[in-house]
Amino acid sequence: MNLRIVIGLTSCAALIALPLFFGGYAIRLATLTIMWVGLATCWNLLSGYARYIDFGSVVYFGIGSYIAFLVMARLEQSFWVALILAAVASGLIALAIGIPTLRLKGAYFAIATFAFAEALKQVALEWDNLTGMSLLGGSHGATFPINTSSAFFYYVFLALTAGILTITILTERSAFGYALKAIAQDEDAAEGVGVNTARAKAQAYAISASFLGMYGATESYWLTYITPSSVFDVHITIQMVIMTLLGGMGTVLGPAVGAAFLYLVSEMLWARFLYVYMAMVGLIIIGVILFMPQGIVGSLRGGFPKPHKEA
Amino acid sequence: MAPLLEVRKVTCRFGALEALADVDFQLREGEILGIIGPNGAGKTTLFNVITGSIRPSAGEVIFQGRKITGERPYRICRLGIARTSQIARPFPGLTVRENVLIAAAYGKGLSLDRARSEAGEILTSVGLGAVADLTPTAISPASRRRLELARALATGPRALLLDENMAGLTSGEIGEMLGLLNGLRERGISMVVVEHIIKAVMGISDRIIVLDHGHKIAEGRPHEVAADPQVVVAYLGRRYA
């Protein structure tokens, strides 16, 4: 336990001090790694613990991006106002969408969330054409005010990721975490022992959506230019799913390990083997899934939940 | 005195099948009520209606003077009705203790620490103290039955619905389970017991109702019911009546 605290504090200090010693590529690499760790951790909260496979998580990333654009570019408010509104809007939209769709199970929930994300991408693309306003910029994209401080974005992402990881740790130790795990294993039985399953699922969904909204807002401000296709890109969802599966669903560290592993490995392979790196990444994913079906962290410590065994 | 639980004219249709037809019964405070009937008589459907997992086509369920038909299952559990399932359904990825802890935390509304100690006490009282930290897949079927009971008890029920809680147990294990249930009655928990093992249910019940094809065909003290010609017909056919 003491060792864990020492390691934890040391790595926190190292992460905070990082921008003082590195710049350019290194800080950019660290920022993106931290962002992906956070995105995968968001996905894990509902989909990993309660096993409601969300295939449209990117929608809240996109909503957050466009809220930030409206607040910063159209209303000319600060990034912090944008960040808060992105979180609130994403969370509220998630409640409105989640309460009906979380009644669907298995593949049906996955399809519904996927469809919602694709639908909202089309809305963002066609809004201006359809309404005659010039609000979102459609396929021409939307441009943010410029902030060139890479340390700024590094720290914002670090804070967001620390936040969602803390929430995951607290969840793991609380009745809420048990409720999510129980829902994953037998939802009717969970309801039968007093768990308000609809509420627990909606909570997890809304918390993860709020954070995804903030990630979207921050990354878009960092990139300064977005289009509906870039911020509602289904590949962002797929990346979160693969990273979480690689690391281990329903564990605190799984998505973080999976995200850091996949992001850094693809980055290294990309730099050396430009033409074949995607195939190599694919092979690595297949290898991990074959030999560590519960993910890296899950396999290392026989993680939760175990395959459903009938006695 | 008003009954603890009252089922009024409950009818439940699935398409053309009438699983329950105008079923009435009352569960009094401190009572053990047995429900018997051939396979498909509607016993499990009746439990599903009471606990809120099925909405009846007609009729209502009253608990402690309050209509609970249409409430969500988790609300009904928190009001004080718990059940065990015919097929034990523990959460397989959690330990035995965690299974019970969830029920105490949510069904009874305890903090996690208090739920944990409550779970420990309940597991000891049903004889599972020694296996509390194993997973449900690692314990015997008889122990899984007890776990099912422990989980229901942890929600702090006033009324406990037991759905074939003794199926598949040896006669020694049935004796132990009956002992446990008698202990619960002394603690003021009323029970509805659905059971195929007639000897067990006759021995423990104060009153018995008999269901056949969704209809209540008899109600009374165990020996009266056993002598009822209609009951004999339902179980054995007209020839034996």
Verbal overview:
The complex is a heterodimer of chains A (311) and B (241). Chain A is mainly alpha-helical. Helices cover 76% and strands 1% of the residues of chain A. Chain A has a two-stranded antiparallel sheet with strand order 1-2. In chain A, helix 2 (24-48) crosses helix 11, helix 3 packs parallel to helix 5 and helix 11 (234-247) packs across helix 12 (254-272). Chain A is globular. By secondary structure, chain B is α/β, with parallel strands linked by helices. Chain B has 2 domains: 5-80 and 158-240, Rossmann fold (3-Layer(aba) Sandwich); 93-156, no CATH class. Chain B contains 9 helices and 10 strands. The longest helix of chain B has 16 residues, at 171-186. Chain B starts with a strand and ends in a 5-residue tail after the last helix. The chains are: A mainly alpha (311), B alpha/beta (241).
Secondary-structure topology with pairs:
The complex is a heterodimer of chains A (311) and B (241).
Chain A lengths: L1 H20 L2 H25 L9 H17 L4 H23 L4 H26 L10 E2 L6 H23 L2 H11 L1 H6 L4 H27 L1 E2 L1 H4 L2 H14 L6 H19 L4 H15 L3 H6 L11
Antiparallel strand pairs in A: 1-2
Helix pairs in contact in A: 2-6, 2-9, 2-11, 2-12, 3-4, 3-5, 3-9, 4-9, 6-9, 7-9, 11-12, 12-13
Chain B lengths: L4 E10 L2 E11 L4 E5 L6 H8 L7 E6 L2 E2 L5 H7 L1 E4 L11 H12 L4 H14 L15 H14 L4 E5 L7 H16 L3 E5 L3 H7 L2 E6 L2 E6 L1 H6 L1 H8 L5
Parallel strand pairs in B: 3-8, 3-9, 6-7, 7-8
Antiparallel strand pairs in B: 1-2, 1-4, 4-5, 9-10
Low-pLDDT stretches of chain A: 303-311
- Unreliable stretches of chain B, pLDDT < 50, 5 or more residues? none
Looking at the structure, what is the overall shape of chain B?
A: globular
Shape of chain A: globular
The proportion of residues in beta strands of chain B is 15-25%
Count of distinct structural domains of chain B: 2
Q: Helix amount of chain A, in percent?
A: over 70%
Described by its quaternary structure, the protein is heterodimer
Q: What characterizes the major β-sheet of chain B? A: 6 strands, mixed
The main sheet of chain A comes to: 2 strands, antiparallel
Gap from first CA to last CA of chain A: 36 Å
Distance between the termini of chain B: 37 Å
